[in-house]
Design goal:
This protein is α/β, with parallel strands linked by helices. Helix content is 34%, strand content 17%. It has helices at residues 16-28, 53-64, 85-93, 105-109, 117-123, 141-149, 180-189, 199-207, and strands at residues 3-9, 33-38, 70-72, 98-104, 125-129, 154-157, 167-170. A 7-stranded parallel beta sheet has the order 3-2-1-4-5-7-6, sandwiched between helices. The radius of gyration is 17 Å and the shape is globular.
Length: 216
């Protein structure tokens, strides 16, 4: 059984921070592959603030093309309506892989507002990545509330391929000071995107005039 991590998001646009996280997760979690899943219509974001789903998907394909263990799924683009993670995991599980869902710490704390959070934890092992500048305290009331809501017993640090039952793993990965919102602002202001994302993505954004007319 292949061990597959699912890394979802709007990827608006994808950048080196996403790619570095995926590569470190591969190594630390002893994964067979990481599947990037661009969201077509994220339930918690205004679709009007996003580049077209087809463009975001194309950029993720370009950014991951040279990595032998990165894959991209259009599963959420092919499905009508909001992109609910639980539906995506249900479909991916049919492939027979052991699924691991990678979540930023801020996203994890918001998990109980998602559709069927307990079912999400049944379909995939959860791995939380603390975000730089936003310390994640697993003993906090907020973190413990989510843990109880999804039926997990405790948090545990990543220890190679070991993932004890009933645990949410905490992965400490290198966090680059890059944000998609800053990159979009740079496009609007005509500033450099160099060294923040692969050159192919910079070219795609420019050639498709993405983010130029986006409201601040």
């Amino acid at each position: 059984m292949a061990r597959t991590a699912v890394l979802g998001g709007s990827f608006n646009p994808i950048h080196y921070g996403h790619l570095l996280l995926a590569d470190e997760a591969l190594e630390q979690l002893a994964l067979d592959r990481v599947v990037f899943v661009p969201a077509a219509a994220p339930p918690h974001k205004l679709v009007t603030s996003l580049a077209p789903a087809a463009d975001r998907y194309a950029m993720v394909k370009l950014a991951t093309a040279d990595h032998p263990k990165f894959a991209v799924s259009d599963i959420e683009l092919r499905r009508a309506g909001p992109s609910y993670t639980v539906d995506t995991l249900e479909l991916l599980q049919a492939g027979g892989d052991e699924l691991i869902l990678i979540l930023g710490s801020e996203t994890f704390l918001d998990l109980i507002s998602w559709r069927a959070p307990r079912r999400i934890a049944e379909l995939a092992r959860l791995v939380v990545v603390p975000r730089a500048g936003s310390p994640f305290d697993p003993e906090s009331a907020a973190a413990q509330k989510v843990l109880a809501a999804i039926g997990m017993a405790r948090f545990a640090p990543v220890d190679g391929a070991r993932m004890p039952a009933g645990t949410v793993m905490i992965l400490h990965a290198t966090s680059l000071p890059i944000s998609a919102s800053d990159l979009r602002r740079r496009v609007r202001e005509g500033r450099s995107l160099a060294y923040r994302m692969p050159p192919a993505i910079i070219h795609y954004i420019d050639s498709h005039s993405l983010y130029v007319g986006e409201a601040p």
